Amino acid sequence: MSQKILHSLEEGISMKILVVGSGGREHALGWKLAQSPRVTAVYMAPGNGGTALQERLYNINITNLDELADFAEQRQIAFTLVGPEAPLAAGIVNLFRSRSLKIFGPTREAAQLESSKDFAKTLMKCYGIPTAEYATFSDADLAHAYVQEKGAPLVIKADGLAAGKGVVVAQTLNEAHCAIRMMLTDNKLGSAGARVVIEEYLQGEEASFIVMVDGKHVLALASSQDHKRLLDGDQGPNTGGMGAYSQAPIITPKLHLRVMREIILPTVRAMEQEGLCYTGFLYAGLMIDAQGNPKTLEFNCRMGDPETQSIMTRLKGDFTCILEHALAGTLDAIEPEWDQRTAVGVVLAAHQYPYAPRKGDSIYYIPEQTENLVIFHAGTNLVDDKLVTSSGRVLCVVGLADSVCEARLIAYKAIHRIQFDGMQYRRDIGYRALNSKH
Ligand code: AMP
Ligand code: GLY
């Protein structure tokens, strides 16, 4: 451990940390940070009903970036962690750094890896990073002609951030043409859809590969897989994620090395060469084909939700130390320790999620946390000391056990007690890991 970190470890025994965001991912980050004996307070901006109830977490009702920087300065926040992509794309890291405030995340320019699909695809193409073939269009006629030439299936993606609504996996030509009309002609996604990336459809199994980057060094976190579709058997509409588990058996040690060598490290180096030194969490969404070859579906410049909930429950030791190394540029000097158990997290979603989730339903009977069960809040609010639903994904129930099968049982047993009107969840979270040949 470097002298600099040792010094700050000794000093930092009453650390205050700021976490930006309000979802299950942010609850999991705050929950883990608050376990550190060095931390006296984790401020959640704005947080949710669960973070309001948890010891050492304090919700603050601030979302404006300048006001967040004022808060960090006035309260002498040791460092800030950013959960969602929107504040990163809006330049929260640029702003905090300009005021000499410590923050872990990419700058607005580096966050283009997520905020512009065309930027990410161009970078991957230039630097030979494996990804699906593609072309980018802002002219609808040219896009329609390209689709006609390539044939279905194809994937149509809005270039910009579209809150999970910007990707259409078109199984037919008609669906592809409709997606182009929706984005380029009818402007249904606003400026996010003013350019579209049209991609070759890839088959295989998806996995989430999340790392921390300090500008030079990369520290891989435990692997995970999420379930993006609403219904069992990966049916129904795409969602933000209906459940996740960690470890992902498909990421074998051999594949891990390959992903680092072929995708993650070349991306970090490419960003450096482009003068956009990358710092922060980097999440590669991978598609692994039947032969075990990985390709990059997308990059996110943040942690995954609900992957974070499973990953954080498995992280041993003091997360603040890892983050201090990340901020000091010394991620090569540490090795995180992982609970060998599997974590399976099941999302409980509100009535009509993901279309028009209903708010205001009372939530009952949330079990207490135990050694092998943790419940993270996302779309919950405290109203007159009672919990009610406040957005699409409401809770994430994480079970931990030596096997996927047992971890699932623990999560589902807890879920059977929880009640709110219109509650939806998948009954098959972790099925791929259960059936895995790896
Ligand atoms: P993205 O936001 O780019 O990860 O896309 C959301 C989801 O769409 C992914 O998790 C995949 O399930 C699917 N998807 C994206 N790109 C492709 C592709 N090229 N081939 C097949 N499925 C894709
Ligand atoms: N779970 C997918 C994501 O966070 O983007």
From TrEMBL:
Q: EC?
A: 6.3.4.13
Reactions mediated catalytically: 5-phospho-beta-D-ribosylamine + glycine + ATP = N(1)-(5-phospho-beta-D-ribosyl)glycinamide + ADP + phosphate + H(+)
Q: Which cofactor does it need?
A: Mn(2+); Mg(2+)
Tell me the Gene Ontology biological-process terms attached to this UniProt entry: 'de novo' IMP biosynthetic process; purine nucleobase biosynthetic process
One of the record's GO molecular function terms: phosphoribosylamine-glycine ligase activity
| Record bears the keyword ATP-binding | yes
Protein name (database record): Phosphoribosylamine--glycine ligase
One short Pfam name that applies is GARS_N
Pathway info: Purine metabolism; IMP biosynthesis via de novo pathway; N(1)-(5-phospho-D-ribosyl)glycinamide from 5-phospho-alpha-D-ribose 1-diphosphate: step 2/2
Keywords, comma-separated and alphabetical = ATP-binding, Ligase, Magnesium, Manganese, Metal-binding, Nucleotide-binding, Purine biosynthesis
What's this protein's family per the entry? Belongs to the GARS family.
Q: Which domain of life is it from?
A: Bacteria
Domain ATP-grasp stretches: 121-328
InterPro entries associated with the record: ATP-grasp, ATP_grasp_subdomain_1, PreATP-grasp_dom_sf, PRibGlycinamid_synth_ATP-grasp, PRibGlycinamide_synth, PRibGlycinamide_synth_C-dom, PRibGlycinamide_synth_C_sf, PRibGlycinamide_synth_N
